[in-house]
Amino acid sequence: MAEERLNGTFSYSAILGMNLAKDALAVALVSPEIRTVLIRGVSGSAKTTLVRSVPGTFGKHIVNIPPNTNESQIFGGIDLEKTVVEGSRHFSEGLLSRANGGILHADDVNLMYRPILNSILESVINGKVLVERDGISCEYSCDTKFLATMNISESELDSHILDKFDICISLETIGNEETRYEIVKRRISYDTDPESFREAYAVQNEKAHKTVRKAKERLEFVSLSEDILRLIGVVCSELGIEGHRGDLAVANASKAMAALDGRDDVSAEDVKKAARICLSHRVSEIPSESKSSSDPGKDDAGKKDTGPSAEENAPNNEAGRRDTDMSGEDRGDKVFGMEGTFNVIDFVSSGNMVCKGRTRCFGKRGDPSKGTRSGRYISSAMPTSKTTDIAIDASLRVAAPYQRTRRREGVALVVEPSDLRQKIREKKSGTAILFLVDSSGSMGARRRMTAVKGAVFALLQESYKNRDKVALISFRKESAEVLLPFTKSVDFAYSKLKEMPTGGGTPLAAAILKAYQEVHKELKTDPGIRCYIILATDGRGNVPMSGGDARQDTLKAASFVGSSGCGTWIVADTGMGFPHTDDALRVCERMNGIYLKLDRLSGDGLAGRIKILTEAGR
Amino acid sequence: MREGIVYPFTAIVGQDEMKLALVLNVINPTIGGVLIRGEKGTAKSTAVRALADLLPDKEVYDCPFHCRPGRVENLCPYCAERSVKGDTPGLVTARMEVVELPLSSTEDRVAGTLDLEHAIKTGAKRFEPGVLAKANGNILYIDEVNLLDDHIVDLLLDSAAMGKNYVEREGVSFTHPSKFILVGTMNPEEGDLRPQLLDRFGMAADVKSEKDIESRVEVIRRRLDFDRDPGQFAERYEKEQNEMKERILSAEKLMMRMSVEDDSLKMAVEASLYFGVDGHRADITLIKAASAYAAFYGRNTTTKEDVASIANLVLTHRMRRTPFQESTIDAEELSNWLKNV
Fold first, then answer.
1. B130, B113 contact by CB (below 8 A)
2. Which of A114, A302, A371, A459 has its CA 20 to 30 A from that of A582?
3. β B113-114/B127-128 pair status
4. Could you confirm whether B299 is annotated as catalytic?
């Protein structure tokens, strides 16, 4: 597919159905203030193809950041060869310096180690890289456009990182048959004969380039009137945009839009277009229903006929949009017909999931952990103890300045123990969630079980995205049954959950111990993992362990797991109605667990609260 | 793999879907590989290894990446530099290999890294190629691909889609071609494959153990025969093997002058729209696979029938827009849909 060298890529102008994305790229190329662009989309939506077609068309060079790189490679560090030869520290600039004056590209930025991504964004926004490492302090310029892509089926980015992208575009699936047909046709013809394909589009490419060049020249004459500035302010505050990056991005993008259109005055239409590409990722709450009525009046005319406007588009917050993209319009009954009551759409639109100001990161990377040899090598440090995971490049760099004074006997480099550095690896700390579900007769009240199932299902969906491990134990009649041991296959958990029968006694004590065993096993095989046990019950155990008192047994079992420190217990109390007992609360206290109440039979509310709890630990 | 005798591909009983998918990928390596899903002991690995034996030898440049002679932009930096200077590297004959990526691989070995020995001896940096370099022009085989560590998967995603491996680590900055046929096997019960990686597989074939007693007996018989005397067993299948090789070769030639009927393009688009498949990979892969299928059957025109014949292999693994949809239902839906078209 697309090649890195110029002329080796799919033609920019041959890419179809991406007008919004192309507008955004043009804006970024025109405006010196717009430096960071994020393109979101599903697999195979030509995100990367689009980005890699840019350099050839607009006469820029491109530098790619692969996923397996580390800090010193990106930002720079000591120049090994030169330092060895000259005996004094020399700095070697990183990958970012190569991107100076060109385009910096990274695929799947949501898989990137967050602090590194953050530093890259900072450097690009500031136009310069500051390095303080390897005993060197250095600064170099990095005037570049950062074009990043991410696949929406993977983990989400934090809102504060998203905010650092001036522009963010979500590629929509193209539903038009004719367009898709043409897309396939072009691709096949490109693959058959790339040379003539590119020739066929050369003129159009040159036209696009010329438009950008002209707009760049015009940009300095483009002005923002007081009215337009006010409009931008109104739009941003109406949408509840935090901070001022969004406002500035819209202002700069509108100017570029006007310049691209060959005008010197920014119009409301420009602002509208700019808002579409600059604001959708910054809206962090679901605006109220009255949204459309509070639109700035100036912008009202001609809004409806040009497709979704910024104001209509933007309110889909991250969670909402991701879900819509994943499941499409028609998902409805076939998929989620979980006894017909719980629906994911409700879950999302209820607003429970997104609280303003709370992090929206669904990723599950923990802090870099030292000492294990698995995980991505992101940086190096002085060894804290004896290490076997030596960062060779870093150690060599430490040793480099001393080479002239050290006795080299037949080798080029002498490394002493004090030079050794160890690797810091990013280890994803996994999460394991065990669902311990009371399926006894007392849960039999149908709606109650449905609510619990709904909540578990909603959590399973999150687990799927985060690739958590899940397990499912149900207890009823005489015993607890492991329906599903810990697995990453959320699909299986779902089908087991769906089939789970209800009825019989409540062997709560046995269930608690069973769950303990499973979690214990899991912690042994994967010591770094965080375990959560979600116990959905009314707490009224009525099946004793061995002929004793069921209640006492239950509390004993609860105390035992509470003192074992094995996993975090979350008790979802499903008891309700009158007389209300606090059995579940008692059990929870003994467990040192977290107590939640399933009131008003709302599965989504429960799921939302549990999600917040488990996410706090991620 | 070249040492010793491999169980002949043509001697594998049944599993026609899997065999077809593998052969089509050889005919047209741009299809994007095969994901083989099924239980243990269903000849998944045997088939993949046997496939290599069917492949004709190829002329490649004598470099660590086995560059195929061709346009400069598709060469590795060494070959590119040399051919620009007019000092074209020498050609060697190499057979396509099955390069295995073990689950325990570390990222430096997969992507390649700083040549440590060279650095210590000379103080200079040099790139040491990894598995992705070796896989260029070959088959990259990952057993139990669903159990592969996430950070290794990340490395594969780009190469699998773009055919290039970008390395930026330990002071080495290097790009080389890494175009391979990605073949993975998995047992679905052990966990899902990340949706991103799933989409990179051009095709997916489901394998099941033979239900028919006669076939089961035949499987045992052949395996025992092979184990007793591999050489003799291989001889028995030599004719079939040669026929298959010939067929692949002529299909490869037919691919060069393949024409695609408009109807088949339309059908591919309709199919992926109807089943709500994300992105455009499915549409494109349908056509590529259908072309390979036509070529395999000795035709130089791709028709709707060809698309219908391979739609199952290309679409079923992409039909899961939601995580909890059962894809078996979709398979039925697909065959119904195909009947109606």
1. yes
2. A459
3. antiparallel
4. no
> Which homologous superfamily is A218-317 in?
Magnesium chelatase subunit I, C-Terminal domain (1.10.8.80)
| B26 torsion bin: left (phi>0), alpha (psi -120 to 50), beta (else) | alpha
Round to whole Å and give the CA distance between B74 and B77: 9
Considering only CA atoms, which of A498, A515, A503, A501 is closest in space to residue A478? A503
CB within 8 Å: B120 and A413: yes
pLDDT digits (tens, 9 = 90+) for A431-465: 888 888 888 777 655 566 777 777 777 777 777 76
Instruction: Give the distance between the most distant pair of CA atoms in chain A.
Output: 89
CB contact A184 to B (< 8 Å): yes
Token pair recorded at residue A348: 């999302």
The CATH number of the domain holding residue B115 is 3.40.50.300
CATH number of the CATH domain containing B278? 1.10.8.80
A191 touches chain B (CB under 8 A): yes
Query: Best residue in A74, A184, A488 to probe B by mutation, most B CBs within 10 Å?
Result: A184
Q: Rounded distance, CA A53 to CA A479, Å?
A: 61
Rounded CA separation A72/B150 (Å): 22
B-facing residues of A in 420-459 (CB < 8 A) are: 426, 428, 457
Q: Is the pLDDT assigned to residue A311 strictly greater than 70?
A: no
How many Å apart are CA A581 and CA A584, to the nearest integer? Answer: 8
Residue B223 domain-assigned? no
- Within 8 A of B168 by CB-CB distance, chain A residues are 65-66, 68-69, 73-74, 95
Residues A461 and A455: their CA atoms lie apart, in Å, by 10
Neighbours of A588 (CB within 10 A): 24
For the record, the structure tokens of B131 come out as: 């598995």
- Predicted TM-score (pTM) of this structure: 0.69
Contacts of A494 (CB under 8 A, 6+ apart): A457, A460, B323, B324
Domain shared by B199 and B267, yes or no: no
Amino acid at site A618: R
Q: pLDDT digit string (tens) for B2-52? A: 347 889 999 998 888 999 999 999 999 889 899 998 877 778 888 888 888
Hunting for tokens 């990056």 — which residue is that? A245
| Nearest one of B17, B53, B16 to B203, comparing CA atoms | B17
Residue B110 lies in a domain: yes
